[in-house]
Design a protein that fits this description.
135 residues; mainly alpha; 87% helix; 0% strand; elongated
């Protein structure tokens, strides 16, 4: 009876670890999908920043505050993304499953916030650049 209980207990623990590993892989997959979206937006970010910097350097508009602010927002979003990419550690095999899940969930929240920051900066700069080009 004791051996059966131990075997049953071990099976429950191992199956729980398997579920957590699967959850960890699913979170990593989500992180990578968001990262790919952010990287595709990064191309537009770079293009917009170059256009804004050209406007600022050329001093072509009477009021350059908006262009400077938007260029700064784009630069900040790019910088945050670069830092996240440098710091992100996808290999969590040396950590306990629980610690790995905590880390992955925190990273997912971070990359989602970066995605939001970057998307907002690109959207705002797109709108500004459209206004400037139509004037």
């Amino acid at each position: 009876m004791k051996k059966t209980s131990i075997a049953l207990f071990a099976a429950i623990i191992l199956s729980g670890c398997g579920d957590k590993r699967a959850e960890q892989k699913a979170i990593l997959s989500d992180i990578l999908k968001i990262h790919e979206k952010v990287m595709s937006d990064d191309e537009q970010l770079t293009k917009n920043k170059m256009q804004l910097d050209t406007i600022i350097k050329g001093n072509k508009l009477p009021k350059l505050d908006s262009a400077k602010l938007l260029s700064s927002k784009l630069g900040a979003a790019d910088s945050v993304m670069d830092k996240w990419m440098h710091d992100f550690e996808p290999d969590q095999t040396k950590k306990s499953t629980g610690d790995a899940l905590v880390y992955m969930n925190a990273q997912k929240k971070q990359i989602m916030a970066i995605d939001s920051q970057l998307s907002t900066a690109v959207k705002e700069s797109n709108q500004y650049l459209l206004k400037v080009k139509t004037k």
